[in-house]
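### Sample
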Amino acid sequence: MRKKILLLFVGIALAISSQAQFILIEHLHCHGDSNAVLSIVPNWGQAPYSFLWNIGDTTQTIHNLPTGNYTCTITDDNSFDSTLTYFVTEPSAITLVVDLITPSHCDGFNNGAVAISVSGGLSPYTFLWREVHFRLHLFHGRHFWD
């Protein structure tokens, strides 16, 4: 009786879900700020993970970010990697428009008025004037608001 040896190779394809979740920990609150904080949480593969961001950081969380694209390559302990991109947005610049100026009639009279409109940024807005966006009974001269 002859013995035969049969070798059988079975290929197994591993499908790796390259899912990860970005968490924007700190949003940009003002146009032009650079204080956003972004973190990435992988939910695939084998820990520990290594991180490489397009800005050179190698931590899971990056800080002091302006608006822009941030790409992170995550590599797990089995050397599988995944690359994801997140865009940090910023509010538009605040725009102030003077809608109405009514000058006071004479020096010493407080019958002038100014109305302004504000857009952009993040509402609600805070004004230093007593009224929200309209000021009455102004004396002649310069008036400022923040």
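Residues 20-88 form a domain with the Immunoglobulin-like fold (CATH 2.60.40). This sample (PKD domain-containing protein) is used throughout the tutorial notebook.
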